[in-house]
Amino acid sequence: MKKYFVLDTNVLLHNADSINSFADNVIVLPMSVIEELDKFKSHNDELGRNARRVIRQLDQLRDRGRLGEGVALDNGGTLQIFTEKDRCLDPGLDLSKSDNRILAVAYTLQQQGETVTFVSKDINARLKADALGLAVRDFEKQKVNFDELYRGHREVPVAPAVIADFSKQDALDLPAIEPIANEFIQLVNQDNDKQSALARVGDDHKLLHLNPVFDAVWGIKPRNREQRMAFELLMDPAVTLVTMVGQAGTGKTLLALAAALENVVHLKRYDRILVSRPIIPLGKDIGYLPGDKDEKLAHWMQPIFDNLNYLLADGRGKKNGRGNGVSDTTRQKVDKLVSNHVVELEALTYIRGRSIPRQYVIVDEAQNLTPHEVKTIISRAGEGTKMVLTGDPYQIDNPYLDSSSNGLAYTVERLKGQPFHGHITLSRSERSPLAAAAAQYL
User: Fold this and answer.
1) What pTM does this model have?
2) What is the mean pLDDT of residues 399-417?
3) What would the DSSP string read from start to end of 196-252?
4) 3-state secondary structure string, 294-331?
5) Burial code of 35-46, b = ≥16 C-beta within 10 A, e = fewer?
6) CATH superfamily of 215-441
7) Pick the CATH number of 4-137 from 3.40.50.1010, 3.40.50.450, 3.40.50.2300, 3.60.15.10
């Protein structure tokens, strides 16, 4: 017996291919969903693009028959648009609201004897559906188990002889631990846990020593082992995609910017630094911001400026103990980098369609992006470009994403083990004792 899946609008806006994700079953789209898609289709963001894509797919399906009666899909399923007028039973909700009319469709089908599941990204809608006795579920395609998310490093107890051999060799073959490319392994003496050695897994799955050149980057020394691992990935040109996950104050953005400045200004590996972040407000939106694009972006990019001010303060960024021969203030140094296009700030809205060659790209707050948005961003990378995605999956401002469905976590899990990708999870806050306490207890 075929099952009926009634999709909420937010599922289609989250993933435009969701109508093809329920093979051999019946996909029901209430008319209210079509009306809500019509409201979103003019938006110039990811929601608008997904709305337009779904509408085009539905229009193409009209060639197969009447959508109101149901048309066959390529995966063996059926798609039907359900017109609520005069057909829906009253489940006891306020049917002047579109969300409740969508629930009424699922309720009516179930009362008619069908096996119905209501699918929504909206927690409150799922709660109401459950109260009506409907089977409910989140749309779980492109979701990962965040509790088991790949951390990029682990400890492995070994015999003392293994650590001794590793210290004498350039590389150590230890297949028993099933290493993952670019993973960090802390070899711990199983007889004395105070003796250990830190290794990185190479492309050939052999354990390699960390490069001592990266013990300090742009005058910044790592404050813990995880930050040292991060520098190893951020400074290696062979690792073209780096993901960093960590709570507030763990140093994600600071480390990425320090490595970017070192690679662009000193090593000349890349032409410029491109920094971007999703434009999602914390709390109530303050509304219209005056000025041109750069002036508007300055408000959203203030965290980036804060880190640049710190990195460009006196005594940092000097090469071999020599300064750059100027006495500019820190703010003037930042302004000069921006005006000379060494550092470019860009809204993610303007990245779509671009090809970005020979740039060090940092996408901050990437936990607020969908898997499709992250794919769009990474696919912009041209020849010689390195991309760094940073974020805290515990601080998500996108209402339809969570720690398991955001694009950053999805990318970490899907690309682990690829030779071009490296990941590190930062767990220790180094901003201040107060920030560390807030991350832990609040």
Assistant:
1) 0.81
2) 91
3) EEEEEE-TTS-EEEPPGGGGSBTTBPPSSHHHHHHHHHHT-TT--EEEEEE-TTS-H
4) HHHHHHHCHHHHHHHHHHCCCCCCCECCECCCCCCCHH
5) ebbeebbeeeeb
6) P-loop containing nucleotide triphosphate hydrolases (3.40.50.300)
7) 3.40.50.1010
Question: Among the listed ranges 119-133, 135-149, 359-373, which one has the minimum average pLDDT value?
Answer: 135-149
Count of beta carbons in the 10 Å neighbourhood of residue 392 = 22
Distance CA 114, CA 2 (A): 9
Task: Name which of 106, 84, 344, 362 is nearest 241 in CA terms.
Answer: 362
Closest CA to 366 of 256, 223, 224, 235: 256
Q: Whole-angstrom Cα distance, residue 75 to residue 124?
A: 31
> Residue 87: how many CB atoms within 10 A of its CB?
13
Q: How many CB atoms lie within 10 A of CB 237?
A: 12
Q: Please, are residues 8 and 118 in contact by the beta-carbon 8 Å criterion?
A: yes
> In this model, does residue 290 exceed pLDDT 70?
no
CA 167 to chain CA mean position, Å: 37
What's the gap between Cα 151 and its chain centre? 15
Structure tokens that stand for 382 in this block: 């041209």
